[in-house]
């Protein structure tokens, strides 16, 4: 079909960029919109909390694993055609979820969504490396984290009201409609942007991965961004249960709480962009130390206070810190290997979500956070891992300008 092979027209560059920014937050919408509905899904589907939390973990794992291969595939077969096909499958999967009561079917569809979203987001991250160069490229790559963080801001806010006035299925209807709108826009205005097709060969892909993983700053960065996003997922997996079950608030309040965490992440991203010219490693280490200080404050205050206000206050500050670290390191990882943009995007994003899913689901599964204190211990475990990486493995030898070159 001609529509599947059309090139991006120069006149459509601005609107295609806008469409790409609409698709970048897709993974955040999929993970965050139904967070306020999790307790109600458990009741209606007659499942445990862990069983419902697994729907999120399965998406994260499949999304992460998919990106290890989708990066090479979009370098070999282009960005445009895989995006259209993946969007169509994603739309269908949402309708399957709303029509079933079987948790196993929901698990399967969440895996499908992880794989399709892997194609979409990897292709769109590579789009900015294809289309822009130099300072303009750095500006857009730094903006990716900020745009992506819009999803955790608006998604749980919308999801809280959808649950309050409709039901948990409404979240997936909205995702399907969103997918349909973006699919139509993508088909009309976007096009292929890959500058040079790289033959898909497993030995070549493994060679590319070896090159990237032999770069210490890149390798450690993958672990650090995974730990940062894992911090937000610990709140995502447990926050609504704490707010609705322990504190007795409605799904709307849980949605507002998740919105606050999204705003915190966005603030961290904006701060990271504002300080982009500052020395790279020192500013990240400072942010990590502040993160640990705020976690200590959250732990100490939990001895005397255990309410939603102290929970949100300290969690907000912690999420600002991890948002700052994530923005800086993810932009570096994406721009470090422009000649292998798709592979770099896939490896960075894939490893990030694998680490995120393992870290967050393990912390929640072991600690079962039911209060501010339990959540604090989860934050502390992840924060200390990041501290060990940043203090003892990452070498402070690069400025931001050198790192992003």
From TrEMBL:
Keyword Coiled coil: no
Record's subcellular location: Membrane
Source taxonomy: Bacteria, Pseudomonadati, Bacteroidota, Sphingobacteriia, Sphingobacteriales
Keywords in alphabetical order: Membrane, Transmembrane, Transmembrane helix, Transport
Protein name: Multidrug effflux MFS transporter
One Pfam family per UniProt: MFS_1
Keyword Transport: yes
Membrane disposition: Multi-pass membrane protein
Major subcellular location class: membrane
PROSITE patterns: MFS (PS50850)
Membrane-spanning ranges: 15-31, 51-70, 82-99, 144-166, 172-197, 217-243, 249-272, 284-302, 308-330, 342-364, 376-394
Major facilitator superfamily (MFS) profile domain span: 16-403
Organism annotation: Pedobacter albus
Recorded superkingdom: Bacteria
InterPro entries: MFS, MFS_dom, MFS_trans_sf
């Amino acid at each position: 079909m001609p529509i599947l092979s059309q090139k991006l027209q120069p006149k459509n560059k601005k609107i295609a960029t806008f469409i790409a920014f609409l698709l970048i937050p897709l993974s955040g919408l999929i993970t965050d919109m139904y967070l306020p509905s999790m307790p109600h899904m458990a009741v209606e589907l007659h499942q445990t909390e862990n069983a419902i939390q697994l729907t999120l973990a399965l998406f994260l794992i499949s999304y992460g694993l998919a990106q290890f291969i989708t990066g090479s595939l979009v370098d070999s077969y282009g960005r445009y055609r895989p995006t259209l096909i993946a969007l169509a499958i994603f739309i269908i999967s949402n309708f399957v979820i709303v029509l079933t009561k079987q948790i196993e079917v929901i698990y399967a569809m969440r895996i499908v969504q992880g794989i399709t979203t892997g194609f979409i987001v990897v292709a769109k991250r590579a789009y900015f490396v294809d289309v822009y160069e130099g300072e303009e490229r750095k500006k857009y790559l730094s903006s990716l984290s900020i745009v992506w963080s819009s999803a955790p801001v608006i998604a749980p806010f919308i999801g809280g009201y959808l649950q309050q006035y409709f039901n948990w299925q409404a979240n997936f209807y909205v995702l399907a409609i969103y997918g349909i709108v973006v699919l139509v826009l993508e088909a009309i205005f976007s096009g292929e942007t890959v500058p040079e097709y790289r033959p898909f060969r497993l030995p070549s892909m493994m060679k590319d991965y070896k090159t990237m993983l032999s770069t210490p700053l890149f390798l450690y960065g993958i672990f650090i961004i995974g730990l940062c996003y894992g911090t937000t997922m610990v709140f995502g997996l447990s926050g609504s249960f704490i707010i609705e079950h322990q504190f007795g608030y409605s799904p709307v309040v849980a949605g507002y709480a998740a919105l606050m965490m999204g705003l915190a992440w966005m603030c961290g991203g904006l701060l990271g962009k504002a300080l982009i010219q500052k020395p790279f490693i020192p500013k990240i280490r400072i942010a990590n130390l502040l993160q640990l200080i705020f976690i200590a404050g959250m732990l100490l205050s939990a001895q005397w206070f255990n309410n939603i206000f102290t929970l949100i206050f300290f969690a907000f500050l912690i999420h600002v810190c991890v948002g700052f670290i994530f923005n800086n390191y993810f932009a570096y990882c994406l721009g470090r290997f422009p000649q292998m943009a798709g592979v770099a995007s896939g490896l960075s994003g894939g490893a990030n979500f694998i680490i995120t899913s393992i870290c967050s689901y393990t912390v929640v599964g072991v600690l079962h956070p039911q209060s501010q204190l339990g959540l604090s211990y989860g934050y502390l475990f992840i924060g200390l891992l990041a501290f060990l990486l940043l203090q003892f493995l990452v070498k402070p030898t690069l400025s931001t300008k050198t790192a992003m070159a």
